[in-house]
Amino acid sequence: xxxxxxxxxxxxxxxxxxxxxxxxxxxxxxxxxxxxxxxxxxxxxxxxxxxxxxxxxxxxxxxxxxxxxxxxxxxxxxxxxxxxxxxxxxxxxxxxxxxxxxxxxxxxxxxxxxxxxxxxxxxxxxxxxxxxxxxxxxxxxxxxxxxxxxxxxxxxxxxxxxxxxxxxxxxxxxxxxxxxxxxxxxxxxxxxxxxxxxxxxxxxxxxxxxxxxxxxxxxxxxxxxxxxxxxxxxxxxxxxxxxxxxxxxxxxxxxxxxxxxxxxxxxxxxxxxxxxxxxxxxxxxxxxxxxxxxxxxxxxxxxxxxxxxxxxxxxxxxxxxxxxx
Amino acid sequence: xxxxxxxxxxxxxxxxxxxxxxxxxxxxxxxxxxxxxxxxxxxxxxxxxxxxxxxxxxxxxxxxxxxxxxxxxxxxxxxxxxxxxxxxxxxxxxxxxxxxxxxxxxxxxxxxxxxxxxxxxxxxxxxxxxxxxxxxxxxxxxxxxxxxxxxxxxxxxxxxxxxxxxxxxxxxxxxxxxxxxxxxxxxxxxxxxxxxxxxxxxxxxxxxxxxxxxxxxxxxxxxxxxxxxxxxxxxxxxxxxxxxxxxxx
Lengths: 325, 249
Hints:
Radius of gyration of chain B: 21 Å
CATH class of the largest domain in chain A: Alpha Beta
CATH topology of the largest domain in chain A: Rossmann fold
Order of helices and strands of chain A: EHEHEHEHEEEEEEEEHEHEHEEH
Strand content of chain B: 25-35%
Shape of chain B: globular
Largest sheet of chain B: 9 strands, mixed
Strand content of chain A: 25-35%
Helix content of chain A: 10-25%
CATH superfamily of chain B: HUPs
Number of domains of chain B: 1
Largest interface: A-B, 90 and 79 residues
Oligomer: heterodimer
Largest sheet of chain A: 7 strands, parallel
Number of strands of chain B: 13
Number of helices of chain A: 8
CATH architecture of chain B: 3-Layer(aba) Sandwich
Structural class of chain A: alpha/beta
């Protein structure tokens, strides 16, 4: 059995979500190969080759894949699954359940006439997976009868695979072989215009060890630097509830929840967040949850390990002062 | 331009779902149902494109049991022109749904299909991508903005790292994210008017689509619950707990 993991990257760095996906692939059992499709992405391919458990890296370095255009990457994956590049034959194709993977995998699956499975949180066996439904209010165990399983992986449910920063990968003999592969042509339907990314010196939200999130209680975007300072003291990332994003306090990429990002840090601080089901869906697997809210009835307190019923504009500065001691 | 909007009937977003005791699924009997919120955003966007003079007709399509017609009526009450109901009692998977929507889109010569990015029941987030793939039309997933222009559509997508702008050709398939618009409420006169709007009824067989399931649901269970913890009353107490009890800082 060969499993193809689609690397998520920005041509410079491999996204950590790829490492969680490799772990999930390892649990399926079989040879794990990684596809790196990009432009000037040799560094990413090198990084992928050093991931523990990866036996081969396909790299397609071509202008077509400079940006993650779903149609182009999907055509390449289809060509690989159909036997291009030595006709390996893959039993599974897996990608992280990020906006990249969630757009890509169903598209590839439909090209191959496969019913894909989204957002798996557990690998039971090579055909059987568990996934959350209804915003995580139920878990569905499903078995696929497809010849090729196409899956997106809930990255927070799987550990990071060891990579170049881990000791094992200093042994060159363990690095995977890297092989180039031809491109599969480009669509002329889609033209990339630009990306406007929120620059941040902080850790990436979905892989941060600490997340400090603000909700409607923050009152305005101008108050978010309060949380940023706290996040910096704790070495964490800043997130937000849907209410805060809808109100325009912060950009969309801050959103944690059912339809935003799913996070599971060691410490999640919910500040001025009431705790709607849709928000809980994105953070309730965090190891420790702290809630700060001036409404003692807020549902967030029902899932918090530590609750503090206090005005956040009093509590957060006090917390900052205490951490500075 | 003709716009097709596929919509899904789901358990109302405000209802707390319960897993059935026999673990075959969640309780849907006597539970309030509604149009999937992302589908409402899709209907709204179609209506705005029509109101801006870019489209002549907005058609709502939904697949499922007869009750789906209520959901189609919701879209008609918002202002859509007519509906298509794909009538089946079979539980449907996204690929089968995409194939049926393709058949309808081709029959109706739809220039733009707008779908919600995901349904809040199964959280699959698949149908739009699959439809674009099998129709071989450009995909604009997770859009927060769409403008008709000479070359097709200028779209802005919500991606994990921020926003992405693409230009896609027409005809196209797009899926809606939360920030695209704020859906309107149907007025009473429009609800009355919607009752007279036509809904065509077709079957999967008539559309020539095999809807047999490829994924078997073995068991549906409750997730592990979290218990409420303790309340603290000062920053010093909280920091002490996080350092010495939880050991996370």
